Amino acid sequence: TQQAKHRKVHLFDIDVAGGQRFFESDTLSPGQQYTLVDTPFGKLGVAICFDVRFAELFRILALEGARLIVVPAAFNMTTGPAHWELLFRARALDNQCFVAGCAPARDETAGYVSYAHSLVCDPWGRVQAQAEAAPQLLICDIDLTETDAVRAQIPVLRARRTDLYQLKYEKDS
């Protein structure tokens, strides 16, 4: 049974000097909402690929109660080695929740070569499991109550200064 429908919020429009040029907005339109799914284990957030670069989206999902955020993604061979693990660890640490990056295995013969390396990061920002580039089934047991424990120990979400941040967002709009 379908629990939710998610559309990618941030489209991948890039022109990396000496690297790739890619404009998803030529063929896609962005989603207009974030996605949170109630499961028997707790709330699950969803983001897609380039969305992982936007801390605000992940913060909203965490504030809405996400204990796990799942991100299907296919970073390329330019951004993957430099940013893949770093971004997923940062989003997990920033929001004190589990973040899982699900990527296709690398196929060097394909027109688009994925970096691969699916991974699961815990609320401390540690990598709990990570696949290699070759096809692999990644299985990782997680305890979603860890999210609650970490948030209680270091109450980042409660300590935020939204009185200051809101002013900045309003000025930038």
Automatic annotation (TrEMBL):
Domain (CN hydrolase) spans 1-144
> In the UniProt record, does the keyword Hydrolase occur?
yes
Coiled-coil ranges (or none): none
The keyword ATP-binding is annotated on this UniProt entry: no
Give the InterPro entries listed for this entry.
Answer: C-N_Hydrolase, C-N_Hydrolase_sf
Molecular function terms from GO: omega-amidase activity
BP terms from Gene Ontology: asparagine metabolic process; glutamine metabolic process; oxaloacetate metabolic process
> One Pfam family this chain carries?
CN_hydrolase
- Which terms are listed as keywords in the entry? Hydrolase
Alphabetical GO CC annotations of the entry are: mitochondrion
PROSITE patterns on file: CN_HYDROLASE
Name recorded for this polypeptide: Carbon-nitrogen family hydrolase
From what organism does this protein derive?
human gut metagenome
